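Appendix B. Raw example, untouched.
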Amino acid sequence: MKRLLFFFLLSTSTQAFAQDDAAAIRKLLATQTITWNQGDLEGFMQTYWKSDSLLFVGKSGATRGWQKTLDNYKKGYPDKDAMGQLAFDILEVRPLSPDHYFVVGKWMLKRKVGDLSGHYTLLMRKIAGSWKIIADHSS
């Protein structure tokens, strides 16, 4: 009986932390939207792990590294018109462990030069108390 009670309490507390973490991750994605829509790629990239091990997979293949990912964003979106207005539709935020989450969603860009949209999967990791994107696959 004590064991059952222990697992019940552990499950309940884990669910509470998971809800807080999911809310923090949704807030991070809202921050991404705001900074992108302000034309601030540097601010947008603050949500990513600032490491050479960051993995970004897009239509051109895999890229490793925070700086290389930023450089690719700057090349693909050289000005605010090219960036357009970003919106996310978050489809799933799933805990994998206390420090890792899997996120699935859809991205949409409204632009004068033509709208774009696609889907993304993110691997999030809590680093020094903050959630960061450590792997991004956007298509």
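End of appendix B.
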